[in-house]
Each structure stands twice: as structure tokens, then as C-alpha cells.
Amino acid sequence: MIDLKMLAMIFFINLAYVTLNTLRFMLTMKGYRILAPIMSMVEITIYILGLSMVLDRLDNPINLLTYALGYGVGVSVGIKIEDALALGYTMVTAILPTNTDQDRSLPRVLRDHGYGVTQSYGEGLSGERVVLEILSPRKNERALYGLIKEVEERAFIISYEPKYISGGFWTKKIRKRQKNNLKS
């Protein structure tokens, strides 16, 4: 006989474990040195509880299948939560052709929207290119891509997550925002 209550417990315990595991891994990669270890303690406790429930009931393969299903759904939920939190920053490089007015106006538009932009020139297969380096909070990443494409649809865009940021426009802006938050 199938114990639906037990299957639900196995599923939700593993879903919680893997969701926490995914988030803890992402927090670790972003350098959250206090929150990640605390989350790992909760995570391992849930893991042992869920695994023991399955190992004690290996006579029913549905328990193992439910455990695996909870694992898969947990990975998906963890990724969705991390995307929603959008922790950290992204570094975007936009490479533009130089034969348009957009190569001069895009840096101005981006700066008007509060982005720090470093502009340089490079050589591509078809000639000279404008290279823009733009730092953005991850939560604004999609809006930044949209803004770039709105001004120059032919822009070649690459992004990555920086681990360490020091100095420059961005650091000053963050310090100013933190001071204003402390006064409020």
C-alpha cells in the first residue's frame, strides 16, 4: 500500500534540502561568509532526515522516485529563488560598430540612467569598434540589455559576474547610498 503522507514528506523534505543547497552554493560563490555556513547547517539536517526516511523504506521504489523528484524540483526552485533575489553585480561588455550615431549616444544614455560606463576602442573583423564596460546590479541586468538594444540593436553583448569590486564610480555611488540609508 502506498503511504501518500510519507511520499509527500519525502518529496517536500528533499525539495527543501536541494533548494537550500542551491542557494547556499550561490551564496558561497558570492562570498556570503556568515549566511552560507548557517544555511549549510540547516541544509544538512534536512538532508539527513530525508535520506533516512528513504533508506528506512527502500522496499518501496516509489519512495526513491519521490526522493529523486523532490531533488529535481528543488534545483529548479532554488534557481528561481536565486534569480528573483538577483544578488551581486554583473559586468556587461557591449561592442558597437563605430559608423553610427549610437556609438556616441549610447554611453550618454547609459550614464543618464545611472550606469557607470568605461568607453574604449577596439578592432574587429570589419573595422573599428566601440567597447563599453558597464557595471550593473544583477536585478537591473535585463533592463540594461533592453536599453542597449533599444539604442543599438547590433550591439554584441557579453556579461559575467565580478567577484571583487574596488574603486571608481560604482564604489563611490554605493558608499553614498549607504550613508544616506544610515541617516534615514
Question: Keywords, please?
Answer:
184 residues, 6 helices, Alpha-Beta Plaits, alpha+beta, 60% helix
Order of strands across the biggest sheet? 2-3-1-4
Indicate the overall shape. elongated
Mean pLDDT: 86
- Class by helix and strand content? alpha+beta
CATH class of the largest domain: Alpha Beta
Q: What count of structural domains?
A: 2
Report the biggest beta sheet as strand number plus sense, adding barrel if it closes.
Answer: 4 strands, antiparallel
Distance separating the two termini: 61 Å
* Strand composition percent: 15-25%
Question: Helical stretch count?
Answer: 6
Q: Helices and strands, in N-to-C order?
A: HHHEHEEHEH
Gyration radius from CA atoms, angstroms: 23 Å
Total beta-strand segments? 4
Query: Would you identify the CATH architecture of the largest domain?
Result: 2-Layer Sandwich
Approximately how much helix is present in the residues?
55-70%
CATH topology name of the largest domain: Alpha-Beta Plaits
The poorly predicted ranges are: none
